[in-house]
Amino acid sequence: MELDNNIQLRPKFEQFSPKTIGEIKSTFEKVKTFEAEDFKFQNAGNHIWIGVGLFRREFWSPSLHIELDSYEDGRTYVKGIFGPDPFLWFIFLAMHFIVGGLFIVFGIIAYSKWTLSQPYDFDLFVMSVLSIIWLLLYFVARLNRRKGTAQMRELFSLANKIIA
Predict the structure, then answer these.
(1) φ, ψ for residue 150 (rounded to 5)?
(2) 47-52 and 63-70: which strand pairing?
(3) Keywords on this record (predicted)?
């Protein structure tokens, strides 16, 4: 899995497993007992969440969500997606929506002032600052993903123990 040159902030993987969903879940329970100190495990239905344990967790620590779909021939289709802590992801998305919403509002105000032949330099300045903030948010997310790459590889390795 290529993590370093991927533009996605939330890398994904897809693969087939020769095991059934029941076999994967039983393997999950076995791995869960041995790795409980280093990792955090949750499951509900055909979904498995694996995260970094409490004592090793950092601000940028990733989590892995695995979705299992069964096929008629007994194989299981596995989809995994890496991401930050759900609360951190919510804050990150909220900041993006706020910056985007303010950009649109100041764009509307600037257009209105332009049509009324009023000065709109301040509005364009604010829109420029909001664009820079948006780029900074993106680069902070990339930096956090780069810091969490080693832990992502650990989670992927653990997922392969469960799936394969």
Answers:
(1) -65, -40
(2) antiparallel
(3) Membrane, Transmembrane, Transmembrane helix
We report the CATH number of the domain holding residue 136 as: 3.30.310.80
Give the residue ranges of DSSP H helices in the chain: 21-34, 86-115, 121-147, 149-163
Report the C-alpha gap between 84 and 66 in whole angstroms. Answer: 14
Count of domains forming the chain:
1
Domain that holds residue 114: 1-164
Maximum distance among all alpha carbons in the chain? Answer: 71
Could you read off the pLDDT of 10-61 as tens digits, one per residue?
788 888 888 888 888 888 888 888 777 778 888 888 898 888 887 887 877 8
Q: Quick one: pLDDT at residue 101?
A: 97
- pTM attached to this predicted model: 0.73
